[in-house]
Each structure stands twice: as C-alpha cells, then as structure tokens.
Design brief:
Length: 81
C-alpha cells in the first residue's frame, strides 16, 4: 500500500506543481437517512490530508482520493522522509 505521512513531497503531473503533506485529520461526513421512527443521522469518518502546493495553494483531499491519484500516476511521491 501507499504509506503517507506529513513531510512527504508530491508532484502533480497535471498542474506541474510540487506539494507537501501537512497533516491528516478526521472529517465527519454526515449522511441523512430519514427515519420516521427515530429521525437519526448516521455519520462516518473519512481521513483528510491537507496539502500545500506550489500552485494553486492549499488543498484538502480525502486519503482514498489521494491514494487513487497516486496509483493512477497523476500524483507522484517525490520523497518519503
């Protein structure tokens, strides 16, 4: 698998920009399932990476999305410090 951690440098083939992984954090994405009995909200957690790019700037992307971009060779890991 892909081992991501803060400080790793990335290269985006499309924008030709250099990025660095800053931090990883939980994002709670809420899905609403109408329940006439309970009216409950069901939440699930998604890992998010904050990346600072040489252009266009800061970006937040889901870890699964980032891994898919790496596997598709759209984003290349330059260093894994």
């Amino acid at each position: 698998g892909v081992d991501l951690k803060p400080g790793i440098f990335l290269y985006d083939v499309d924008t030709k920009s250099i990025g660095i992984l800053i931090r990883r954090f939980w994002s709670y994405e809420g899905m609403y399932y109408p329940s006439y009995v309970h009216g409950t909200h069901d939440h699930f957690k998604v890992w998010i990476w904050e990346i600072v790019w040489s252009r266009p700037g800061m970006e937040r992307i889901s870890e699964s999305g980032l891994i898919n971009l790496i596997k598709a060779d759209i984003i290349i890991i330059l260093s894994d410090t």
